[in-house]
Amino acid sequence: MENKLDYSVQAVPQKRKGNGIIFSQKVAPYIFVSPFILSFLIFFLYPSISTIIMSFQEVLPGETKFIGVENYKKLLNPHFYAALRNTTIYTIWTLIILIPLPLVLAVILNSKAIPGRNFFRSAYFIPALTSTIVVGVVFRLIFGELESAPANALLKLLGLPAQQWTMHWGTGMFLMVFLASWKWLGVNILYFLSGLQSIPKELYESAEIDGAGMFRKFFYITLPLLKPVVIYVLTISIFGGFRMYEESFVFWQNQSPGDIGLTLVGYIYREGFINNDMGFGSAIGIVLLIIVFVINIIQLKVTGAFKKEG
Amino acid sequence: MKKLSLLLLVFIMAVSAFLAGCSSDTSNSGQSSKDTNGANKLTLWTFGEQHAEFFELMADEWNKTHPDKKIQLETTTYPYDDMHNKLLLSLQSGVGAPDIVDIEISRFSNYLKGKPQLVELNDIIDPVKDKAIQSRFDIYSKDGKYYGIDFHVGATVIYYNKELLDKAGVNPDEIVTWDDFKEAGKKVVSATGKPMITIETDGPWTYWPLVVQQGSDFYDKDGNVILDNDINIKTLTFLKQLLDEKIAIAAPGGDHHAEEYYGFMNKGGAASVVMPMWYMVRFTDYMPDLKGKIVIKPMPKWTADGKRSAGMGGTGTAITNQCKNVELAKEFLAFAKLSKEANIQIWKELGFDPIRWDVWSDPALKEPNKYTEYFGDYIFDVLMSMKDEIDSPTVTENTPKMNELVVQTVLYKVLKEKSMSPEQALKNVANEMRK
């Protein structure tokens, strides 16, 4: 019995020695973050660096060579301008629609006076669960060219002429913005709702005592306290707008007439894969990265998101 | 302590399970690339379900006639874009490509850029070259070497709606030149109120065949841009005139493959359409109401001695440089695409005009099938009559980009938006492509 005990007592420090590295408080954190670090290095940093390298190359099997800034010079063409213009205008439209509208809807849905608000909350969110491609097919049929297509039939009822929706720049932009708004409205409502629920009720109560009306409460309490959420939604919306691809793809499969539906990401796809010019595709990608980065830095500076942390 | 060691144990088990998963995976795939049941395995990618069925049929035939060299053909069908992108990446990175692959003509040149990633097929093509339409091999070649074998000639014809022509008292046999066509068009429009022809504004299949028919093209044989030459400007101006004079309309939906278009034509929307022979299946499957009303004729000519067709579209079947058993793949490909039997099967199964003209007069091609029922049994008589008039376009490394610009810029701006003159639009794009 005693012998056995001795043995086990001795075994413990031995075990400790062997596992010392793993159990040390210095190493453990690194082990825990290693899955993220590894996936970041392999799936993010490595491709990013090779994209930068490829943007200075002509990439062909067996004959890849450096060609200086030739790929960047090629960017000065009307298609790139069209893509940049479309993407920028699309982003601005989604910002105009997808921030104020969900904000107002969230405030309404947050009010206890609205009947069936749980139903509406889920109803607004359901579109976000559907795949853009599947919805796009339905939208493509709704906005068909013939007069019997649902959207044109509706226009006719209102006494307006039928439209060739996917053939003109203005209607094309409308289709993309409409699809995006329909799909992402619910998600943004969700962000704002969670923000609203963290505002203490006491603030509203004391404002009421001071005689503040509905609009005053909205502009002096709700909006300022929601500012962090608004900045967050603004940031992801800018990213979302510039990385847009599916909304254009479902209507034109990357072949929009006169570049009316060409987006920056669509242009990467077109040059990189369809025309097998990976170097040029990489260059477009790098420029897109710089654009998004600069816009968001400016946006965060202006809205003062940096100051809080400092 | 006990808790910690338990945690460690779980962690180690998780890692080892993960590693085991990896190792068993690799051993599996290692095994599957080896022979099974004494048959050699060949993998094949395609973007058309019907193509896959055709190759499986031919593999069965092969195994019946070659019991000593049985193959196990594994076909995978991907959507069009997916397949071409997957292939591009696997050839670029050197792993994961199939042995045999179907590549659509407008993407084919992507795989010949730099060092061609496909296997040269001259030794199986040369023996049958004189029995087939030569230009169908040239479109898949680089520096005199052939890399792909097509399913069909893609001879462009004109499909007339006889019902509408009869109403206007027009006899399709009397339409010999495009000038006759225009005159007949005026009659049809005034008698029926329907347009004579539809024009693709969002696809190349009206403009391109009309250009190639005249011996012109977007590139000349040496690969120089000739998009803005006189013939091309004249042809586009002609199409614009047809539209302006309301003899033609822009195809509903933009091209001849749009849902809107099938519905429009099925209701007798226009009196004719210019498309290659492979368009027949769209009539039989999507425009059933026109059965028995469509007549197939050679295209009208531009001049008295002009040609009456052009070979458009196509799918080149190729062998990749990652194929381990190139000899077997070549033998099978020759059997499945170049043999006489194969060419007859291509018509029977797929309804395409096969590339070997020596089978066109074969009685097997007159046997009833859904195409002869729909159109009549004279289809190959029409084809035979224009055998020497079928030129194919010149395909260069930049063809994908060129076609994209012609369709999305030139045709859209001239025919749809009408914001540019034919000459101006063609010159602009030609200059962009010359850079």
TrEMBL record, chain A:
Gene3D superfamilies: MetI-like. Signal peptide: none annotated. PROSITE patterns: ABC_TM1. It is a multi-pass membrane protein. Pfam families: BPD_transp_1. Keywords: Cell membrane, Membrane, Transmembrane, Transmembrane helix, Transport. The chain crosses the membrane at residues 27-46, 90-111, 123-143, 173-193, 218-242, 278-298. Residues 84-299 form the ABC transmembrane type-1 domain. The keyword Membrane applies. It is found in: Cell membrane. Belongs to the binding-protein-dependent transport system permease family. This is Sugar ABC transporter permease. It comes from Geobacillus thermodenitrificans.
TrEMBL record, chain B:
InterPro entries: Bact_solute-bd_prot1 (IPR050490), SBP (IPR006059). Residues 1-19 form the signal peptide. The keyword Signal applies. SUPFAM superfamilies: Periplasmic binding protein-like II (SSF53850). Pfam families: SBP_bac_1. Keywords: Cell membrane, Lipoprotein, Membrane, Palmitate, Signal. This is Sugar ABC transporter substrate-binding protein. It comes from Geobacillus thermodenitrificans. The lineage of its organism: Bacteria, Bacillati, Bacillota, Bacilli, Bacillales.
